[in-house]
Write a structure and sequence with these properties.
Layout: H1 11-20, H2 31-38, H3 42-54, E1 58-60, E2 66-68, H4 70-76, H5 80-100, E3 103-110, E4 113-120, E5 135-137, H6 142-149, H7 153-161, H8 175-188, E6 191-194, E7 201-209, E8 215-224, H9 230-247
Antiparallel strand pairs: 1-2, 3-4, 3-8, 4-5, 6-7, 7-8
Helix pairs in contact: 2-3, 5-9, 6-8
Length: 271
Amino acid sequence: MPRRTAPIVSVGARLQAILEAFTETSPLLTLSELSRRTGLPLTTTHRLVGELLTGGLLERDELGRYRVGLRMWEIGSLAPRGLGLRASALPFLGDLFDATRNHVQLAVREGTEVVYLERISARDAVHVVSRVGGRLPLHATAVGLVLLAHAEHEVREQALAAPLRRFTERTLGTAAQLRRALADVRRDGYAVCNGAVELVSLSVAAPVRDQEDNVVAALSVVVPAKGANPRALIPVVRAAARGISRALGAPSGLRLPVAARHETHVLPEHG
């Protein structure tokens, strides 16, 4: 993580900078590393880290390195978009996992990124880079395409105007490709990504709606790309997503979407 260049003025912003210095690849940091990553003086970092330790937001290991504390998880679990949604979704995630024996994921959108709320996995499931609490760009994942396809016009245009990071040669790389993919998702009611983040995996996702019929989350299954049959996965993924939607009170969760009454259409391998 590069050192921050802009000055951090408020105490709250300084505390946030320290907490955000931790990443999936750097879960343990020394005081000097925290100072360097945040751009804060060592004495200031020491004082603020002490306050975070006292509050349980940080913990210290036997080697003197710091990590995110359990209290952070307790607070994070109270986020309204995650709390009720996750509880309503878990039974259906379990059913989908039982049916597929592969990764099953629940995700929401924040800005132009996917945030993963829950995942159920088998020990021998295909490798994935996503993790609970982790983020990925919307354009590169099946859940992301579902969420972006149903996002506000301004959000879609923001994503279309931004550079599209390529993870593999199958990742959507142009605004024209992404625009076509989003139109397909809105028409068909699901998304398929084949090798968009890792060539070894294929994912199928469907939207989850709330009581006002707004898309608030996306559900996906991730399977090995080799030998995968998306047509067999689409109905079970959509059924699980409709089940969660019913639990959330969505009117559309009570009826079968029109697209599901016809032969399923698998998106081209554009990502």
